Amino acid sequence: MKYLKSYKLFESKKQEEVKLPNLSDLKIVELKTIEGKNKWHNTKDKLIHMVLDLGKWEDFPSNEIPNFYENIKKYIPSMNEHRCSVGRKGGFFKRVKKGTWLGHIIEHIALELQTLAGHETGFGRTRGTGKKGEYNVIFNYEEKSVGLVAAKEAVKVVKSLIKEENPEIKEIVKKLKDKIKK
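^ that's the sequence the OP posted. Answer follows.
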């Protein structure tokens, strides 16, 4: 599939057809762990650092991706607990509805996947690298292998949500639980 569906969006009462970018534009450039003292947090010393290239998706915040908000709420309702910068329950969904970038969403999904697998995580930051469309996605982990897989799976989940497909969260969580050291 070279391009996703075309959608008609309405702006100022005139109809305009918008073609969504290719999903291959959204990709991990680098993925590593940070252990010990770091610039991202004073006390969190086990972090995943993903450099994420949004490509042409940089021009599509979540509120401009058809049905994205509805799909993320449908398939990952537990993310209603995420407070985000709004500071209260439901804050993350509010940001998604208003419009936020996919790197920020991937950060939250990676945290939620780990939480659903039984790990206590919750710190994350997404900041631009200085290159257009490229972001440092930072989040904490308890076990390195679980955090690294959660990062990769979070990107796949976002792509499924964009395609309006079920991201199979239960199967991903099982995969993460299987990685947890007994």
